[in-house]
Amino acid sequence: MTYTEFLPSEYAKTVSEGKVTYRAPSNIALVKYWGKKEDQIPANPSISFTLDACATTTALTYSKLAEKGSGFSFELLFEGKDKPDFRPKIEAFFNRIESYLPFLKDYHLKIETSNSFPHSSGIASSASGMAALALCLMHIEKQLDPSINEEFFDQKASFLARLGSGSACRSIEGDLVQWGYHKGIPASSDLFAVKYPFPVHEVFHKYHDTILLVDKGQKQVSSTIGHNLMHGHPFAEQRFSQAHENITKLKEVFATGNLKGFIEVVESEALTLHAMMMTSMPYFILMKPNTLKIIEKIWQFRSTSKTHLCFTLDAGANVHVLYPQEEKEKVHQFIKDELVAYCENGQYICDRIGFGAKLLLP
Ligand code: DP6
């Protein structure tokens, strides 16, 4: 597929108004996307678990304008309130996708959005938020062109979501999702994410992710800036090849249920992501002292309890604790006894692997 396949020809139908609601989940990368080229093309492939509880719900009401506007006509409500500081991001998103959705300026759009997780949790809502909005927009396109099939619908939603935020393209469909070309994964593409196409051992069907909220404050360095610092980074090329190798390693891990192999790749990826931040110019550190305390505790507990919990990190101080369903009781107890003390106000979120976005209405 090339991007031209997402450029629509004339629409068969006209639609004057309607409303659609989607719920799209967040996702946590196992192999990390860090570094990108023009037009939101990732510098390396990534793979993620889709989450279940952490999600954004977006309702989009659309009504046709008397005549096409010169700009985008939209209003934005976040948790019921006007959110002017979100407007530039949405405006930039609309500009990037307009050629793929040429009807955008024909409608007034009312976007009402809310997150299942607390606003100030330090959990980025851009993945779930952009995915939910992209799906709502695809719903309008499907009204205009009813011949669009389910596969193309999801692919184009992922393609559009990527243009809003890279990781958002992994929040459309599937429990294990791959984005970015990899020679061993058929149909993998830099343009959109695909459901992981090979059989996956049952231990990974019910994985848990408990998100420890170590620091709920605003990040000092945005992901977009971080990605850009991979240009001219001294370790960039090695890092990008390592991501390819790690996806190859995970293929064996997913097929056989090799938890030791899983832990090795996932923790190494998390630390490499932060190592890239620490070795860019300018350099920065997003981990906090409590992030490291938690990592040490996880390593100690894993060796004494013979369980298989491991950690991963996103671009922040929070720690995602990943573990199989069978070890849930033991790990929960450990989290309560030993890790909650390192969370800001003792807060954490219990999540698990989910299966992708859902149409809620109509
Ligand atoms: C560390 O998707 O937030 O979470 O494309 O600039 O919006 P933009 O970046 P974003 O980057 C996510 C980076 C990450 C790793 C990952 O999710 O793969």
Explained architecture:
This protein has 362 residues and is an alpha+beta fold. A hairpin with a 3-residue loop joins strand 2 and strand 3 (41-42). Helix 2 packs across helix 3. The longest helix has 21 residues, at 236-256. The strands form three sheets. Strands 1, 4, 5, 6, 7, 8, 9 and 14 form an eight-stranded mixed beta sheet that branches. A four-stranded antiparallel beta sheet has the order 11-12-10-13. It is built from eight helices and 14 strands. Ligand DP6 binds next to helix 4.
Give a quick summary of the entry.
Helix content is 33%, strand content 24%. It is built from eight helices and 14 strands. A hairpin with a 2-residue loop joins strand 5 (73-78) and strand 6.
Oligomer: single chain
CA gyration radius, whole angstroms: 20 Å
Order of helices and strands: EEEEEEHEHHEEEHHHHEEHEE
Strand content: 15-25%
Structural category is alpha+beta
How far apart are the termini? 30 Å
Descriptive key words:
362 residues; 33% helix; 24% strand; four-stranded antiparallel beta sheet; binds ligand DP6; eight-stranded mixed beta sheet; alpha+beta; single chain
Task: Furnish the topology, listing elements before pairings.
Layout: E1 17-31, E2 36-37, E3 41-42, E4 46-64, E5 73-78, E6 81-82, H1 87-97, E7 107-115, H2 126-144, H3 150-164, E8 176-179, E9 193-195, E10 207-212, H4 223-228, H5 236-256, H6 259-278, H7 289-305, E11 310-313, E12 319-324, H8 328-339, E13 348-352, E14 358-361
Parallel strand pairs: 5-7
Antiparallel strand pairs: 1-4, 1-14, 2-3, 4-7, 4-8, 5-6, 8-9, 10-12, 10-13, 11-12
Helix pairs in contact: 2-3, 5-6
Bound molecules: ligand DP6.
The site of ligand DP6 has 17 residues, from helix 4.
